[in-house]
Amino acid sequence: MKITGSTESYCAFKLFWPAYDHIEFMYMLMLNRQNQVLGYHQISKGGMTGTIIDIRVVFQVALKACATSIIVAHNHPSGNLEVSSADRKITQNLKEAGLILEIPLLDHLILSSEGFYSMADEGIL
What we know:
Blueprint (H helix, E strand, L loop, with lengths): L5 H11 L8 E7 L5 E9 L9 H10 L4 E7 L9 H17 L3 E8 L2 E4 L7
Parallel strand pairs: 3-4
Antiparallel strand pairs: 1-2, 1-3, 4-5
């Protein structure tokens, strides 16, 4: 599967996303130079209101997969697609770490049963 935008990313995540609407998860897609999906990985599984993301783990997995870029997504069990300050902070930290390691963060999606929000499309990334 080749990713050319946020809609393709959303469709890719929905292929394997767990059915737990009451628990927050974060997953990542790992891509090659042609933006083809190399694989996916569950970064974290949290509770009803949040999950912990360790940036070192994200890039450890990306490096092992020989990824040249990544896309991350997490869900909001509440269904609210608004970006929180914590969402902005982790996105900025992932972006900065990716630049140093030359594995850029291409997008960060927030998912809900109603749809998705793309931080890249909205200019946050």
